[in-house]
Amino acid sequence: MDNTVVYYHGCFVNYLEHETGTAVVDVLEKNGFKVEVPELICCSFPLLRSGDLAKARKRAARLTDTLAVFAARGFDIVYSCPTCGYALKEVFPVLLETESARLVAEKTSLISTYLLDLHKRGELSVEFKRMSLRVAYHTPCHLRSQQLSTASADMLSLIPGVELRHVERGCCGMGGTWALESRQRSELSEKVGTQLFEEIIKVNPQLISTDCAGCQIQIARYTDQSGNRMIHPIRVLAGAYSGSCPRMAI
Q1: pLDDT tens digits, residue range 26-42?
Q2: Whole-prediction pTM value?
Q3: For the chain, what is the domain count?
Q4: N or C terminus: which one in the chain shows less Cβ crowding within 10 Å?
Q5: Does 21 lie in the same domain as 47?
Q6: Phi and psi dihedrals of 163, rounded to 5?
């Protein structure tokens, strides 16, 4: 049986935050998978958000046609970016109405969910080193919309020694690039996320973790805790396998 898994990395990992992509590959390889990372394009969600449906539909069709080749061979597809996953699983089947889009959606999973499913079947390596670490975790909106609010928190809970605080205070206010588009929106976004920021500061974590790059930027900006670092949950898990605690300053 072929144990290949396809990783859709998305633009943020591809251009800015390679460490998260490396962690996804490392964790999957640790669990006996061969990871395929084909040449892929943007999920087109920024085009959708800007209202350019024609160009978004064309790009989405190209992406799903590429991924459908792997899905048709029975390969699972994983993603680490919530927005990319939302596009592949929720948006494309409606936008395109094609068999390729439906097939890709069926075979696509959040990396945390994929690993938790392995764990439920007793197939996940649990050779984790103990990490005495207080972690605050925030669920991005595009995971809530996929009914995946607790997936990454549950994954982090597998690590011995981690004191996990799942901070449930709603949206951080970033809204993709919405909060960056004007001073007025920036000020409003701060108000939207105030309860979240205040709760994280109260928890005083050693590490703040969330799956979304936009959330990382927003939370780092408004919690202003120089001793903390924002990090994707999969990097924490990869660190537990290696016995190190990776940190990324924003």
Answers
A1: 999 999 999 999 888 88
A2: 0.87
A3: 2
A4: N
A5: yes
A6: -95, 105
